[in-house]
């Protein structure tokens, strides 16, 4: 078992133990699990998840199923899909239960050259996702995602710093991600 899997398993056990200590019924505390996005899912852009590279995401909302509008709750890019979609839903008073994104600290990844630029892989397995609010994000690096400049999420800040040392960029907390940051990242591809 590799180091990342051991860490992920330990974190999952600690969260489960903490939830039990905090009280409440299992149904009140239980969050939906991330789903495996391999092969079956298309994004709101009609693109398959996985082959394009970069972080993926999925959102679960309380009392509002995104599929009711014909839009999925899963995304192959954070900058071009997940965050713009999410900001729009927050404007409509949709309440997120949990937002999951790829956690590159849980993945043994290799940055590879593709289409003339370094690119991250695009893991789709459930264990590669983490709660988006618990992660730090690297923006403005030379590593692209599925549709160009991207956010690269990490649960381990030291790994994020190491990524920045190699590929450049800046680190942001989840709370710092807003429309202005996302629009700035999108415009940087022009």
From TrEMBL:
Taxonomy of the source species: Archaea, Methanobacteriati, Methanobacteriota, Stenosarchaea group, Halobacteria
Species for this entry: Halorubrum yunnanense
Protein's UniProt name: Nitrous oxide reductase accessory protein NosL
InterPro entries named in the record: N2O_reductase_NosL
Protein origin, superkingdom: Archaea
């Amino acid at each position: 078992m590799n180091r990342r899997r051991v860490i992920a398993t330990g974190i999952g056990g600690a969260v489960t133990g903490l939830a039990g200590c905090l009280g409440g019924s299992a149904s009140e505390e239980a969050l939906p699990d991330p789903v495996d996005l391999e092969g079956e899912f298309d994004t709101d852009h009609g693109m398959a998840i996985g082959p394009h590279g970069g972080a993926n995401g999925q959102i679960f909302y309380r009392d509002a199923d995104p599929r009711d509008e014909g839009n999925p709750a899963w995304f192959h890019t954070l900058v071009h899909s997940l965050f713009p979609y999410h900001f729009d839903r927050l404007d409509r008073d949709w309440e997120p239960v949990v937002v999951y994104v790829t956690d590159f600290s849980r993945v043994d990844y290799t940055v590879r050259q593709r289409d003339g630029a370094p690119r991250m892989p695009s893991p789709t397995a459930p264990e590669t996702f983490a709660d988006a609010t618990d992660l730090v994000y690297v923006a403005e690096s030379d590593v692209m995602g599925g549709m160009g400049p991207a956010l690269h999420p990490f649960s381990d800040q030291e790994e994020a710093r190491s990524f920045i040392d190699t590929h450049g960029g800046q680190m942001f907390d989840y709370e710092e991600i807003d429309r202005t940051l996302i629009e700035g990242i999108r415009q940087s591809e022009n």
